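so my prof wants the structure for this chain in the tokens format not the other one, which i didnt know existed until like an hour ago. anyway here's the sequence
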Amino acid sequence: MQDRLKGVQQVQSNPSAFAAILADGSVVTWGIPEYGGDSSEVRDQLNDVQQVQSSGSAFAAILADGSVVTWGDPDYGGDSSEVQDRLKGVQQVQATYRAFAAILADGSVVTWGDPDYGGDSSEVQDRLKGVQHVQATRYAFAAILADGSIVTWGVPEYGGDSSEVQDQLEGVQQVRATNGAFAAILADGSVVTWGDPDYGGDSSKVRDQLKGVQHVQSNGRAFAAILADGSVVTWGGPDSGGDSSEVQDQLKSVQQVQATCRAFAAILADGSVVTWGDPDYGGDSSQVQHQLLGVQQVQGTEHAFAAILADGSVVTWGHPHYGGDMSAADQVALV
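here's what i got, hopefully its the right format
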């Protein structure tokens, strides 16, 4: 594929394949063929592609005319033939692990893929009007409506059922998700959560602290909220960053929080970094802490972090087999 990978504008991935959008609006794919790495059957349709979204083993591309082209494993949303005539004027596509949801220009939603993972929205279809944004856990969808309310569907215990907090879900500005729970930031800066408690669906222990929330970050099992005063409040799986008590006194003047699958990294105003969560996933940066000065940006894989410093160099930590240990040769190549 290397000779075709020129003028790449965006790359999207699922666990088994990649899809690259080129400057001419075409798409190049590689990886395990049946999981989206082979797009040859739809290649002639992949023209003027604006955006690509992925489920666990499939891709969906939005074209300039608002139509959608899908490929990959049919059980993961790779086959949208049953709803193809409704996929017109598509503005955004979101995905759970096995299903897709598309927002149309009229504010309605079309879903396809595994019915149990949100691919069937028939029970809430009459409420899906004026949809502004859709967020997803691994198993369920949550749609923010124009009036600031929320509609959910999919596996109930993993966020698909928000009935217990429905009366609190007013003035929703933003929704974040772990693998099994949702967190909604309201207009007054408070947060409402639902879904599996082990994934952050229960924030009752920190509810009194969740005031003036500016942003919420999530990993697979926990949430971290940045407050207006630059402090951070966490909840969810304790070993995955839901418990930040050991570094709480360091979490001041936080500018940004990034995540791996089970850990968090916060960039402070002075360019230093504070980490917490599972050490094997980047939660322990003690070995490189002296290098983490003047940090401009942090990015994470599932198991490791990489920080870009002011001088353009890169510092990595986390699981060495997943990018946490950059060799001297890699460092030289970057320079």
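also thought this was worth mentioning. The mean pLDDT is 95.
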